[in-house]
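User: Hey, quick favor. My workstation is busy. Could you predict this chain's structure for me?
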Amino acid sequence: MPEKILFDVNVILDVIENRAPYVQHSGPVLKRAEGGHVHGYVCASSIDTLAFLLRRSCSSAKTHSILQDLLRILSVATVDEQVVRLALAARWGDPEDAILYYAAKNAGCTKIVTRNKRDFKLADSSIAIVLPSELTVLPP
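Assistant: No problem, here it is.
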């Protein structure tokens, strides 16, 4: 069974918006999920964040199309009351990052791929917090 990896919003946006120089590492990592080499996840609460950010530069129809394409590649890590309560009890500086972390944990993910590792400094060792560049050096 492929490894379960949750993708942070910044990594997904690198690919969607073709953000240089980040896309050179974020793109291949997302391709691993598309190819089935890893089981990729996006946090449920990240979908509305992505929609909000995309709507600033895309039409509503384009935003929906992008999100539908994303969900063909990634599964959704659910955010329920338990995840929210755990995240808030953890008292991280940013509840959004804590929610993402606990959603990943609840989904059984072993890694979170992000460009902001410092946002997850309170994470325990059960989930590795990695940069996209750390995953692109591994064979597919």
